[in-house]
Design a protein that fits this description.
Chain A: InterPro entries: CE1759_FMN_reduct, Flavoprotein-like_sf, FMN_Rdtase-like_dom, NAD(P)H-dep_FMN_reductase. Chain A: This is FMN reductase. The complex is a heterodimer of chains A (205) and B (395). Chain A is an alpha/beta fold and 205 residues long. Chain A has helices spanning 18-36, 52-61, 66-77, 94-102, 127-138, 165-182, 198-203; strands at 2-10, 39-47, 80-88, 91-92, 112-119, 142-143, 148-151. The chains are: A alpha/beta (205), B alpha/beta (395).
């Protein structure tokens, strides 16, 4: 049986957090869809809140340590990523961006990513498209066409009666599952694997 | 094994007193620290090279030339010499001069070691950092090893019939280390030449340093300079020691908490757990650094950063005494006890390099004959001088 690893990164700050709730739902939908394709998926969930201090430390010292180093390793090796952030002041939360800033710039190249966000009202829903998606695109991630925004009212089923939250989650999970099924992460490139020889460096001056 | 200290020459406010030394005081402190290290019996003093405040060590050979006259035994080195922004012709001459003045009691460490803004001050581009390191060093080697050099490259004006003076002491170039924290290309360069490789370790988890050193060792063997475990490796380190662990932690904490590089970031406990910084009793420092060889193999040089973060001179001198009296003898014993006989104890000395060069058939090139056809000439005369230059150098 084929296996895949889905890493879920939630930038929610509260406990319990609606961001984490959405993250879990998106991951659940993806796992279900993968199972339907004969793929067993392992889900590893990271709450950035738990490594918030390490993220700031990394910015100040230039190297990641402890739990954050493990998180980075997990993300880099994932077959698919579910990334969910609360929308603060028109865009992703500072914690979410700080995490993105300290992970290796090549860590997400080609990575299937499903985006989610939470916010007070549906009026913020496009923040996913104009700010979060370009960020991931810049990192050359493979971002699922559907992204899911959940406003407070969505949890009560009140916002979108045409296409309620569970439907949107299901569709997004299906898209990520398709992408993850099609691509297995070969793991990070070996930093020492393609160091040019001295002759090459000299020739290429 | 060599044990020594290296300074980055930061001018930092002492957080306990609120006092900041001025540049003159700091330069004089560094000289005192180096002389004290010599008297205490340490093996190496090394200075960084920085061209921006808050650092003061912009001119290593001036400083090391003075120290060559003031000290007796200690090896004088750089940590690092900027091979990217310095003209290799000037490096060749400056360090040959230092070699002659110090009687061979010197070496130097090459590094790129600059932040972006520094490059343009010297007409260089940081995006060419690795290429500058490769080309400039290749030229530097030739200027030391060959008496008359014709050269053309990408980053500086061509040389025709050029001889760097003075010639290296006994016709043998200084021993060179290459320092790099995260560029395997530099480890590759060091291995290619059979030079030493220095990893300044101090801000990194051991797993990172270990992998880099391992890569250098593999490539050293690949290029036929010896077995991987015989490659010449140096590490950076830092500690603060007092008789008791509690005393050391209490005294050092305000310096740690406010240090320019890691202050206001991770806690001292987190930082010491993740990096080689050790704050504690001499025995704790010994235990930590005796274990380094388990990760990187037997290595030849250990340098400690001890004079940073605003620590007062008196404290730094006390740290040197603790290092020389309590830490180094134990570490030396520990390392020597387990070192295989055919793995070098230290990097090659000047005397050893001279013997080796003579065995290889090299004769000393103490001076190159030549007439000065340039000084005092007018621009018009230069054409004539250039025409004759080939003859003057026997080409």
């Amino acid at each position: 049986m084929t296996e895949r690893t889905i890493v879920v990164v939630s930038a929610g700050l509260g406990r319990p957090s609606s961001t984490r709730m959405l993250a879990d739902r998106l991951a659940g939908a993806t796992v279900t869809e993968l199972a339907a394709r004969g793929i067993t998926a392992t889900v590893e969930t990271v709450e950035l809140r738990d490594v918030a201090h390490e993220i700031v430390n990394t910015m100040l010292t230039g190297f990641a340590t402890g739990a954050l180093a493990e998180v980075m390793e997990k993300v880099t090796r994932a077959d698919g990523l579910v990334a969910v952030t609360p929308i603060f002041t028109t865009t992703y939360s500072g914690l979410f961006k700080s995490f993105v800033d300290v992970i290796d710039k090549d860590a997400l190249v080609g990575m299937p990513v499903l985006l989610g966000a939470t916010g007070g009202t549906a009026r913020h829903s496009l923040a996913l498209e104009y700010s979060v998606r370009p960020l991931l695109t810049y990192l050359r991630a493979d971002v699922a066409t559907t992204s899911v925004f959940a406003a407070t009212a969505d949890w009560a089923g009140e916002t979108d009666t045409v296409n309620p939250l569970p439907n949107r989650i299901g569709r997004a999970g299906r898209e990520l599952a398709e992408m993850v099924a099609a691509r297995e992460n070969a793991g990070p490139a070996d930093l020492y694997g393609d160091v040019p020889s001295f002759d090459q460096m000299f020739r290429n001056l | 094994m060599q044990f020594g200290i290296f300074t980055v020459s930061d001018v930092t406010t002492d957080p306990r007193t609120g006092r900041t030394p001025d540049d003159t005081e700091r330069v004089r402190s560094i000289l005192t620290i180096a002389e004290h290290a010599d008297q205490a019996g340490l093996d190496v003093f090394a200075t960084g090279e920085h061209h921006n405040p808050p650092f003061v060590a912009s001119s290593p050979t001036t400083m090391l030339g003075y120290l060559a006259a003031r000290t007796k035994n200690i090896v004088l080195s750089t940590a690092t010499t900027l091979i990217t922004t310095n003209d290799p012709v000037k490096i060749a001459e400056d360090y040959a001069m230092l070699q002659v003045i110090s009687g061979g009691r010197m070496d130097l460490m090459m590094g790129r070691g600059n932040t972006g803004p520094v490059y343009p001050w010297f007409g260089k581009d940081i995006r060419q950092g690795i290429n500058l390191a490769i080309e400039n060093y290749a030229l530097l080697r030739r200027l030391w090893e060959e008496e008359v050099v014709d050269w053309q490259g990408k980053f500086r004006t061509p040389l025709q019939g050029f001889t760097a003076t003075p010639r290296p002491l006994d016709g043998v170039a200084p021993f060179v280390w290459h320092g790099s924290i995260r560029s395997p290309e530099i480890a590759e360069q060091a291995a290619y030449y059979g030079d030493g490789f220095f990893h300044n370790n101090i801000f990194w988890p051991m797993s990172h340093t270990k992998r880099m050193v391992q890569y250098y060792r593999e490539r050293f063997e690949h290029y036929g300079h010896g077995r991987a475990d015989q490659a010449i490796v140096g590490l950076g380190g830092q500690f603060f020691a007092r008789k008791s662990s509690q005393q050391a932690k209490a005294e050092f904490r305000p310096y740690f908490d406010n240090a320019p590089v890691y202050g206001h970031g991770p806690s001292m406990e987190d930082f010491t757990a993740e990096t080689p910084l050790t704050v504690g009793s001499p025995q704790e420092v010994i235990d930590r650094y005796a274990a380094m060889k388990d990760a990187v193999g037997h290595y030849q040089r250990q340098l400690f950063l001890i004079d940073h973060a605003g620590l007062p001179l008196k404290t730094v001198l006390e740290q040197i005494d603790i290092l020389a009296e309590d830490i180094v003898p134990a570490l030396r014993k520990e390392n020597e006890a387990t070192r295989p006989a055919d793995v070098p104890s230290g990097p090659p000395t000047h005397a050893e390099r001279v013997v080796k060069a003579r065995q290889a058939g090299a004769t000393a090139g103490g001076h190159v004959a030549g007439d000065d056809r340039w000084t005092g000439k007018t621009a018009e005369d230069d054409t004539e001088a250039a025409d004759r230059a080939g003859a003057a150098f026997g080409l």
